DNA sequence: CGGTATCCTAATAGATACTG
DNA sequence: CAGTATCTATTAGGATACCG
């Protein structure tokens, strides 16, 4: 009965209040929550080239403040997308790198990206259509 | 050259500053933006069973205020997920229904849901593992 | 360098009341 | 019924300064 819902997809839920459907909504919301905000995606992309130090990430993203960067990295750590490593140099060196688990996002990200690109084109096209009326 | 990026997926971008990669980030962010917030997903699910009137949607979602519901529905309309129809009864009747285009979200939603469910289980499991240490 | 602490702004959501 | 208006609460995000 779980697989029934799995196969049907979220928008096919026939009973909004059913446990299965609420599970689906919760699933989608959990995923959105984890990826959300201004910095999560750029951060994952930046780290996808390899480990980076705190300051280097900051430079890479351009204008993120240390407070926000710190918060975002902690969240990514909690979700096990990122590992923080401390080296006992002087001064101390800290690097952040993506975990293998972060790759579990690949399919989600691809779908999001494809849909987003397609949607933007659609919106732009429909704006043009309207302005030429 | 666009397909090259398509196939590689977002986290494989090798040049953060490349046009292609920024396009991918923008794509993902556009998609997240459109689905985001507390109500978009529950709203789409609620309407997936068929057209509903304003008040019925409100009841269906439980505790959304008319102001927020109105705003959310307008955004869904702008993105062409929803069509608003006015019937000249007295008092006037208004229904909202999903468009065929809203189905273009099916794949994204399925990936989000699957990943979200899997991720929640993983987090819960790792909490248990930690508490039994 | 790798952060934290404090203060501040802007966007988002909600409560409540009201209108055509 | 189908909303809008007004006001308030919460949140995300940022500027700036400072610490080990």
UniProtKB/TrEMBL annotation, chains A, B:
PROSITE patterns: HTH_HXLR. It comes from the Bacteria. Residues 21-124 form the HTH hxlR-type domain. Keywords: DNA-binding, Transcription, Transcription regulation. Pfam families: HxlR (PF01638). Transmembrane segments: none annotated. InterPro entries: HTH_HxlR (IPR002577), WH-like_DNA-bd_sf (IPR036388), WH_DNA-bd_sf (IPR036390). One of its GO terms (molecular function) is DNA binding. PANTHER family: TRANSCRIPTIONAL REGULATOR, MARR FAMILY. This is Transcriptional regulator.
């Amino acid at each position: 009965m779980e697989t029934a819902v799995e196969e049907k997809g979220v928008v096919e839920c026939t009973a909004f209040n059913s446990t299965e459907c609420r599970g689906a909504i919760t699933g989608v919301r959990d995923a959105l929550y984890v990826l959300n905000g201004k910095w999560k995606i750029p951060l994952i992309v930046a780290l996808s080239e390899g480990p980076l130090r705190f300051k280097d990430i900051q430079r890479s993203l351009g204008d993120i403040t240390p407070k926000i960067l710190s918060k975002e990295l902690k969240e990514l750590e909690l979700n096990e997308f990122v590992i923080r490593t401390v080296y006992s140099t002087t001064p101390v060196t800290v690097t952040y790198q993506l975990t293998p688990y972060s790759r579990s996002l690949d399919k989600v990200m691809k779908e999001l990206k494809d849909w987003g690109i397609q949607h933007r084109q659609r919106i732009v096209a429909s704006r043009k259509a309207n302005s030429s009326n």
